Fold each of these.
Amino acid sequence: MRVHDFVMPVGPQSPAIKEPILLKVCLEGEEVQKVRMVTGYTHRGIEYLLEGKNPDQALYVASRVCGICSITHERAYVRTVENILGYDAPERVKAIRTVLFELERMQSHLLWAGFMMHEIGLETLFNYFWREREKVLDCFEKITGGRVHHNINKIRTLRYDMEEEDPEFILQQVRSVARKTRDYYNDCMKEEVVVSRLKNVGTIPKSMALEWGLTGPIARASGVRIDTRKIDPYDWYSRIDFEMAAGKRGDALERLKVRLTEVMESARIVERVLSGLPDEKIPPHSLSRVEGEGHARVEAPRGELFYYLRFKNNRVERAKIRTPSFSYMKILEELLPGMVVGDVPVIVASLDPCFSCLERVLVEKNGRVEELREKEFRRKYSCPG
Amino acid sequence: MKELLKDNRLIAIVCDDMGEEFRLRYYFDGKDHNIFFKELRVPKESPVVESLAEEFPPADFYEREIHDFYGVEFEGNKNLHLKLFLPEDWKGKPPMRRDESA
């Protein structure tokens, strides 16, 4: 029996997909015809929450936008406020911020790499990647006291300075992570399972990447040379020479390559910054008075993160956060059609077609939509089971 | 605005309720990677703006978000009726407006 076009809902709560997002996948046999994304399950109204807070309070809300890139959001917020104030931080503050920023990129990419391996069934590599990530989290714990949320950036300064023995510890951890990542990188490229599951899957050609205005590792994997750290440098990125990872094909394998290369490059950046860490006191923290409006962007692990803030009477009047994912999420609707169901989890990375999800299906035939419970569907379309 | 999209990348659209009107700011990443913005002001009674979703696909999400929270209509965006962040059965007024209707 041939099952006609049917819409399979995947998510928002499903054992196969970890992110609270609903993808309505229209299938014709194995082939994906159309995908519609339904979002809004984790909308917390952060922009509204920020309104009415003073600059120092709002910083804590901003850092909680994301659980993986907490430092990035703090940094973007602080950069925006410092832009409004026209303030240039002391060199030591800038150096420590650069170190934290790169550590964040390392842990985020390693988390992603582990997740990717999990999705294609390589649980051992998943554990290996996450073991390395633990080392980066230890560095965070040492510097900031927190493993997930750090709250270390302050307007004009940092909450804590680094201890004398911290650089040694970080260097040791980071070197070990880079060494292991190189090993896993080589293993991945040789491993047939990884290559065959990722190569030529979810390909974004360069022209499409440009048309969609992509940023971050996804754009770089397609051969678009764009990196906010290069084009709009902040902290020590203008002082430090670093390589921008670049790919060509723009498929999932290339994205894995680019992200792992960036982990190793970030380790090198951390090493370089720590070797030239200026020996000076960081300014004490004081409450800020901010008026006016401003914007800033930073290079988050996923791409360009943009902040707009307007203050009135020392309170946030309007905040706008454009996260990197928000600008490229829609590309899924373009990428998935034409692929087989088996490739969907690789492209979405966190999505697995799980047929226990077939609790309810929407049948679309000749433009008419009928909604059926599972039993009715089985009876009508004589599915065995 | 469509002219600007040819050479520049749209970063974000920031909508703001200024009392009598909405202020829409289009932030662009220029040719030599400088950020600049173009401002658009539309009256609150009939907030209609031209859509950029055809020329620049990610703008679809930006516009739907603003439509959800401020009720601005983007002419030419076919997905505007689909709620992006608000629940699909949302009956109330756009929640980010700064007046009694919100």
Amino acid sequence: MRGFLKTILAAAIGAAFATGPALADPMAEIKKKGVLVVGVKTDYPPWGTRDASGNIVGMEADMAADVAKRLGVKLELVSVVSSNRMQFLQQGKIDLMIATMSDTPERRKVVGIIDPVYYASGVAILANKRAAIKNAGDLKGKPVCALQGAFYNNDLQSKYTGRDLVAFKGVPEAEQALLDGRCVGFVYDDVVLVWKKAQEAKWGDFEIVQLNEWQPVPWGLAVRIEDLNGPWGKFMSDTVGDWLKSGALLDLEKKWVGGNTAWLSEATAKAKK
Amino acid sequence: MEAVWDFLRHVHDAYGVNLVHFYDGFERGRMLRGMWTTLQLATLCILLSVVIGIVGAWVQGSRSRLLRAVVQGYIQFFRNTPPLVQMYFFYFALGPMMPRVENEYGIPQPILGSFEWAMLSLSFFAGAFNVEIFRSGVEAVQKATVEAAESLGFSRWQIYREVVLPLAVRVCLPALNNNLVNLAKTTTQAYAIAVPETLFVASQIWSDRINVFEMMVTLLTFYLLLVGAFVWLMGRLERALRVPGFGK
């Protein structure tokens, strides 16, 4: 009886240690399976969303498709959200994560963020053309619409506008206030503003002015941290480098976002050199 | 004063209690401006809503059925809809329909801004209740008193102003106090249409500085003091207006 218990115990302990993929080369494994599993977002148009028939589409879905093409395997997209995307990667549910993730030092300790980064979002103002805003310095003393709780609000007010912001809880309210002429512009993430302006005709009298006073926050795609310096991490790093050099990302951004952001244009120019 | 701010900085470093809205000049400035805005908004709303209440209660006793119906409609509309919804409606639905004036930045702007709309919508909201509160006072005035004034040749407006209202106010003052205290607190809803009042500023500060607990305590204390001062004032008014023997 005791021997039987011992066996079960040993098996249980063995199983506990054996979980988690201990693969030497995930790239070889992907090729053997014939399927690449990529985690992308479905709640963040136009980077990751679902079309009318439920398929996952978007700029990042297209990027995933290109990776599968380069590997010569089939693509399987898995919907992830901000709160589970890193766990999905760690647990081996996905081979690669392309999910609008900001690159931070804390995250680099948990997942293998690929260098170079593929995208970045900065801060811009969707400004009324009549106000002729050229940079943040032009905002002095002017009413500026914003979103309550945005990280740049404090700087925006203390260094540039010098007056209380016209800040709302949600984007629709801020947009409405801007359209109603209650502020000279709406300060928000540049990539979303570029997309909105390209999508909606009502912004014809408005222009997007990049506010270079705030550094763009890079977005990184990621593999498991133990694969970062292996062949799989190396392959993805080369792939991103190639996307930048060939201008493929600019084309994808043009297709999905409707225009090009300053950061990506510069990153492409730098990669071409 | 600098010594106090330095001490509060020390409290932050040593104990992690972040009273940045006191010791930081920028945060203190906007916090004080926010409190001043709250004070202005509350005072203006209280005065305007009392005027609405007095006039409304008089019109309710009017001989014209149309006028009475208008007041009744006004009360039903403002009493039966939430004040936050009214504020959104005024600012986002009615506001853009107002005539526009080109502002100094060359943008045609609706004539009424967020502060004005907050003031109007809150005053109308509280005013609807005030009409009913004043009516309760008016109806408590003895018919004989009104008849006596009529027999002395007072006009209808004279009777209301000189006889009925002074007595009615004394009867309805406690109920009026309640409603005005509520009104002072409801000014926080102006936050939703970007009026930079106390709650608006506080939420900006706590999202920047992540000192949510300290801001909550400051907010609560501020409103406690503000409403406390108002209640004390109204208590004094009530005592000053006391007519010995009236209502006993």
